[in-house]
Amino acid sequence: MIRFEKVSKRFGTDTYAVENLDLDIDEGELCVLVGPSGGGKTTILRMVNRLVEPTSGRVLLNGEDVAKIDRVELRRRTGYVIQQAGLFPHLKVSANVAAVPRLLGWDKTRIRNRVNEMLELVGLDPAQYANRYPSELSGGQAQRVGVARALAGDPPVLLMDEPFGAVDPIARDRLQQEFLSLQAQLHKTVMFVTHDVDEAVILGDRIAVLKQGGVLQQYDTPADILGRPATQFVADFVGTDRGLRRLAVTPIEITDLFTPPVVSPGATIAQANTALESSEERWAVVVDHDGRLMGWVEPGKSPASESTDLVSEHMHRLEAWVPLNASLKTAFSEMLQHDAGWVAVGDGDRYVGILTPDALHAALRRSVGGDPVPV
Q1: Which of 28, 169, 209, 339 is deepest in the core (most CB within 10 A)?
Q2: Hey, what CATH topology would domain 2-249 get?
Q3: Over the chain, what HEC string results?
Q4: Per-residue pLDDT averaged across 130-144, rounded?
């Protein structure tokens, strides 16, 4: 856990980089710091590993005042990742990743195994990348090495200062998703600085919004930051399209789904019509005996003479499909891409229900406990 207690950093007599900050980051939580330039984000981050000392207040790491921890020891307990990776250019990738384990006095076999483990963890084949120099890497590859190096000593805390800011948008999106997967495995306590609101809402368990002078405006979940901004500054900073951004941080839940009648591909059209008699729906979902979605059928449009035909002969393929717990943004994108009025939702290969536009809107309202608060 990281705690800031009434922390300020002052330059001169009346100029603050950070002012009277109270902030708690729970163990295993990913906290994102956002705000304009001059908002004190990097200063706050660097006070954790004492690259910057506060003018007043205390920073606690797992209950221990960092001011009382030896700087070298403290920095071995906090992985640090910066923009453009900050790799040592004269050292090979393997030596970069091995830097902290060497300082910790690990033996050569343990270091070699750890380097390979970390490179594999961030998606880089050790046989292909361990002996390269940083100049031989792409921007995305260098950032992966930077993350691997920060994690090599297994620190409980990871400090990340705009780590993906210098790579192209496609690589950035990929790195964000890979880092989320990595965090799901490792459960590190992470402080992450970015200027990008979209990146913050994708990555953060909670987001701290700061204004100039390092004054905290709101510390909350992404959904509440977007749906219930606490101040006009927060509302302006996250933007007028914050409703759309909420789509990206609101997952689909079972209770959001509509379940129309289900028929098997081996049923007849007459049997499908019978299944629909007790329903107000005109169509049914076609699911095989293993629960896998095959398509949909509207039996009422088939002539009476075809009532003995099999459903499989008249069903339509369903293109719009997303996994359960995908975001509403993903579901909405599928609807638009396929010009569909609804999207099927699956749990692995198993069909579980249908998400309609009305249900999507209800789910968005549910994400903030009702209608968002206008600011």
Answers
A1: 209
A2: Rossmann fold (3.40.50)
A3: CEEEEEEEEEECCCEEEEEEEEEEECCCCEEEEECCCCCCHHHHHHHHCCCCCCCEEEEEECCEEHHHCCHHHHHHCEEEEECCCCCCCCCCHHHHHCHHHHHCCCCHHHHHHHHHHHHHHCCCCHHHHCCCCHHHCCHHHHHHHHHHHHHCCCCCEEEEECCCCCCCHHHHHHHHHHHHHHHHHHCCEEEEECCCHHHHHHHCCEEEEEECCCEEEEEECHHHHHHCCCCHHHHHHHCCCHHHHHHHHCECCHHHCECCCEECCCCEHHHHHHHHCCCCCCCEEEECCCCEEEEEECHHHCCHHHCCCEHHHCCECCCCEEECCCEHHHHHHHHHHCCCCCEEEEECCEEEEEECHHHHHHHHHHCCCCCCCCC
A4: 89
